[in-house]
């Protein structure tokens, strides 16, 4: 299956996300292999939005372990409550950080990262992992990113862990 996620012709951020979600749901529909789906999710997000770094950290016991990603070398493990990823996991909520240098306990996997958004992947009240997206620009993420990335993660969770047909 070849999917084309590049959308340079769409300038409105919300429209870009809406187009992405329409293409994303069929991409993962019916696939249940976690690593495969997470890998293609990273590739699709990177292609559609050109993010500096996009990837998943998966919850294992008391830490997040690096999963599929697109971008430069990353940290292998993050403790619950540490850094942006660990804090989003602990709070079970999306965090939008306009300036990572101002975030208490920020873990700098790359010195080029300037802003970040982390969306927990929650299934039946349990965090399975987090979607972590970094930008090399300050204040790159906002409420629009939060809204649509949370939708993408819900589609992902429904397809991958609940084996339901994605809805957008």
TrEMBL record:
Gene3D superfamilies: 3.30.450.40. Residues 33-165 form the GAF domain. It comes from the Bacteria. GO terms for molecular function: L-methionine-(R)-S-oxide reductase activity. It holds the Pfam family GAF. GO terms for cellular component: cytosol. SUPFAM superfamilies: GAF domain-like (SSF55781). SMART domains: GAF. Belongs to the free Met sulfoxide reductase family. This is Putative GAF sensor protein. It comes from Phocaeicola salanitronis (strain DSM 18170 / JCM 13657 / CCUG 60908 / BL78). The lineage of its organism: Bacteria, Pseudomonadati, Bacteroidota, Bacteroidia, Bacteroidales.
